[in-house]
Amino acid sequence: MAIREGNLEAPTRHALDWKNPDFYNEESLNKELERVYDICHGCRRCVSLCNAFPTLFDLVDESDTFEVDGVDKKDYVKVVDQCYLCDLCYMTKCPYTPPHEWNVDFPHLMLRAKAVKFKKGEFKTRDKILSATDKVGSLAGIPVVSSIVNSANKNPLARKAMQKILGVHPDAVVPEYHSKTGRKIVAGMADSNAYDEVKPAGRTSGKVAIFATCYGNRNEPHLLEDLDKVLQHNRIPVTLVNKEVCCGMPKLELGDLNAVEEAKNVNIPEMIRMIDQGWDIIAPVPSCVLMFKQELPLMFPDDADVQKVKEHIFDPFEYLMMRHKEGLLNTDFKAPLGKIAYHAACHLRVQNMGLKTRELLELIQDTSIETIERCSGHDGTYAVKEEFHEISMKICRPVISRVQKAQANYYSSDCPMAGHQIENGLKDDSTPHHPLTLLRIAYGLN
Q: Distance between CA 415 and CA 435 in Å, rounded?
């Protein structure tokens, strides 16, 4: 029987069968790892994406047989540790994703391996701490504590101690913590929220409940303020999802799938309550949107509420461009932005909606966009870990180079952490501007 060399169809995803006991069977896992590694070895299209594939190919090339069968199965995990589930190999490179008969889903195979590793207890205390965003944020967000934490994060001696105790690289950018959270800011702006008429458009109801996200709430609350200002400037009523916990992405990347389910059990009912009252959901961080659009629906394919949230959660620029299509976007921009070096975040690209941020920013007069479609190598926690930081900066180097060559007025990324990863590589006094901030500037909003 002839085998097609590659797909002629768009890739599809199968549900993640993570509650099947065989999912955690190491013998079964290693058999599948060997099968997929062998396919990857024979293809090698993904070598430039991240460090997982060079690690695999080096293991093969340094083996006695120059094939996957010469690689010690104990070394399979070295590839797994380098994968941070950006999904770019699946969405942009692999010719053997389903519906191809070879059925290669490299990210979800890596997720399975991470889950097996987590279940065996093979993780560091640091990894549990870094993925406990709600607990860390609640503690570090206490007014006095936040000042101490932020000062320590900028102190070289404290960072050396942090490296020794937690394994956090001293040169990695770690986020600041704010006691005045994004949720407090948005809640305080509610008085200006009444409009004579709510205008649905396409799939949008015209009313938005913001899912603040851990990062937007504690680390960069200005994202929520910018989002609120932009939405209200477009006469869209804004509120907050009443209660939320972390979306679960950090726990997913750790392989702690039970913790992902626990977060889902808090967030989904709260979102459904808002959706049933006529609100759409927007989150300002691409990874969080992706969690509800893709990962949770694949983990819980039979959960009707999860699937309903999938249809009602949006990226901010996706939402605004949907309304622009119906003539409901405010295009009365006051300030041109010049040239923008725009990094398209991985977890935004894999949502398969096109580059809506770029499309909207291009509507601003005297504004041009230099689009950079390469991974920044950050991934939330990967770039701060001492054993991976230098590799993450190497992955980001092409992005940094493109920003430098662009000589733009601004550089920007939908992923705020990617923006700071670029900032870290530039080693100058420049700072990233989130696209929501740029849009607020263009509107002339205080």
A: 9
Q: DSSP class of residue 133? A: H
CATH of domain 331-443: 3.40.50
**What span, in angstroms and rounded, lies between the C-alpha atoms of 220 and 226?**
11
User: Can you tell me which residue has the tokens 């932005």?
Assistant: 337
The one-letter amino acid code at 377 reads G
Q: What does each C-alpha distance from 406 to 7, 157, 359, 372, 412 come to in angstroms? A: 35, 35, 19, 10, 12
Q: What is the pLDDT of residues 399-433, one digit of tens each?
A: 999 999 999 999 999 999 999 999 999 999 899 99
DSSP lists the bridge partners of residue 280 as 208
pTM (2 d.p.): 0.94
Q: What is the DSSP string of 159-227?
A: HHHHHHHH-B-TTS------SS-HHHHHHHTGGG---S----BTTB-S-EEE---HIIIII-THHHHHH
Sequence letter at residue 202:
G
The token pair at 435 is 């696209």
What is the secondary structure of 3-59 as a DSSP string? Answer: --SS-SS--------TTSGGGG-HHHHHHHHHHHHHHHHHH-TTTTT-SHHHHHHHH
Locate 430 and state its tokens. 């420049």
**DSSP string across 301-346:** TT-HHHHHHHHHEE-HHHHHHHHHHTT-S-----S--EEEEEE--H
Three-state secondary-structure class, residue 407: coil
pLDDT per residue as tens digits for the range 330-365: 999 999 999 999 999 999 999 999 999 999 999 999
How many CB atoms sit inside 10 A of residue 311's CB? Answer: 12
φ, ψ of residue 178 to 5 degrees: the values are -125, 135
Q: How far apart are CA 343 and CA 369, in angstroms?
A: 10
The first and second tokens of residue 380, run together, are 């939330």
φ/ψ of residue 329, rounded to 5: -90, 135
- How many Å apart are CA 340 and CA 430, to the nearest integer? 13
Residue 127 Cα distances to 122, 132, 251, 372, 390, angstroms: 10, 9, 9, 30, 18
